[in-house]
Write a structure and sequence with these properties.
single chain; 320 residues; alpha/beta; Rossmann fold; Nuclear Transport Factor 2, Chain: A; 2 domains; five-stranded parallel beta sheet; 10 helices; 11 strands; 45% helix; elongated; binds adenosine-5'-diphosphate; binds deoxycytidine diphosphate; UMP_CMP_kinase; phosphotransferase activity, phosphate group as acceptor
């Protein structure tokens, strides 16, 4: 099975800093940032037949039917080619949530919900200030108050739903931008760890399936592998490189064998993740048994985790 898209929902009142934080997170941590509100504004401007209807919804601070917002999000997710998403301003009500679960529930994994908390007085001041230059028809006091009411009545219950699933990471959005960013990064660390584990599993599955193209697609252009051969690091970029690598460390890649990643240790530094584990290939009747210490260095960029380097120990045990 390939890698499912990993999604972080970013919620908070209007003006809580969702767009500001997502823009920086996407730049520094390599996520694809998609703003539901921005996609709707673009759709309104595109001259489509829904334009006039959208204009009314946006001015009134009402939430548009999920078919429309999720349709735009889904298209943008596919067009981005990424697997790691910050989805900003969605799901904003029960209709959004139901639509997501119906259409995307099996297609994507929600790793966490980043929730920026901010008092209404701060939000109002920010939106009025933003209104001086944003050109947004809803950055005025009347629309801001309507949007805040909509947020309290319809979005907070969605946050409570995610809270009961243990997915909410709360960050005080009223602090200065750098402090909010630092707290946001810390709040995302466990979600990022899960993304890296999922990417690692998907890449090992590609190896055990002999899917060298899928494996290579998860590598950086300058990726290298070292260890198994006892010689210098070799390039790990093209399917042919992966083939060469596999043939040298064949026992650890016994075709179709199930595997376990034991004792994983992970360190995340910005958009770099370092993961070490003992990879145990159980084979049972199906194949050989082998254990290898592996360290993978992953780089988060362009909306994906890409392998930068793989180091393997010698095979610790193998049965013919
Ligand atoms: N931590 C912060 N402190 C002060 N102003 C902020 C902060 N975060 C965002 N802003 C400003 O507040 C306004 C709203 O931020 P934005 O990111 O657009 O919010 P949202 O996407 O949640 O509506 C913007 O003008 C932005 O520059
Ligand atoms: N899931 C969504 C997200 C936004 N919208 C609409 C309604 C919102 O008032 C506007 C603007 O949302 P956006 O997230 O860009 O901005 P604010 O958080 O309100 O500042 O877009 C929607 O209908 N459905």
């Amino acid at each position: 099975m390939g890698l499912k898209p990993n999604v972080v929902f970013v919620l908070g009142g209007p003006g809580s800093g969702k767009g500001t934080q997502c823009e920086r997170l996407s730049r520094e941590l390599g996520y694809v940032h998609l703003s539901a509100g921005e996609l709707l504004r673009q759709a309104r401007e595109s001259g489509s037949e829904e334009g006039a209807l959208l204009d009314e919804y946006l001015r009134e601070g009402r939430i548009v039917p999920v078919e429309l917002s999720l349709g735009l999000l889904r298209k943008a997710m596919i067009a981005s080619g990424g697997t790691r998403f910050l989805i900003d301003g969605f799901p904003r009500n029960q209709d959004n949530l139901d639509g997501w679960e119906r259409i995307m529930g099996k297609e994507a994994d929600v790793t966490c919900v980043l929730f920026l908390e901010c008092p209404e007085s701060v939000l109002e001041a920010r939106l009025l200030h933003r209104g001086l230059s944003s050109g947004r028809s809803d950055d005025n006091l009347e629309s801001a108050r309507k949007r805040f009411r909509t947020y309290v009545e319809t979005t907070l219950p969605v946050v409570e739903h995610f809270q009961s699933c243990g997915l909410v990471r709360r960050v005080d959005g009223s602090q200065d931008m750098d402090t909010v960013f630092a707290n946001t990064c810390a709040a995302l660390s466990d979600a990022m760890e899960r993304e890296v584990m999922a990417a690692t599993r998907a890449q090992i599955e590609a190896a055990t399936d002999n899917d060298t193209a899928a494996y290579a697609a998860m590598c950086c252009d300058d990726a290298t592998g070292a260890g198994c051969t006892g010689s210098a690091a070799i390039a790990l970029k093209t399917p042919a490189d992966v083939e060469t690598w596999g043939s040298k460390g064949a026992s650890a890649n016994a075709a179709g064998t199930p595997f376990e990643l034991l004792n994983p240790r992970m360190q995340i530094m910005g958009n770099v993740a370092l993961l070490s584990y003992l990879r145990q290939n159980g084979g049972g009747d199906a194949g050989r048994e082998a254990a290898v210490e592996e360290t993978r260095v992953w780089l988060g960029k362009g909306g994906r985790w890409r392998l930068k380097h793989l180091h393997c120990s010698a095979i610790k045990s193998a049965q013919p």
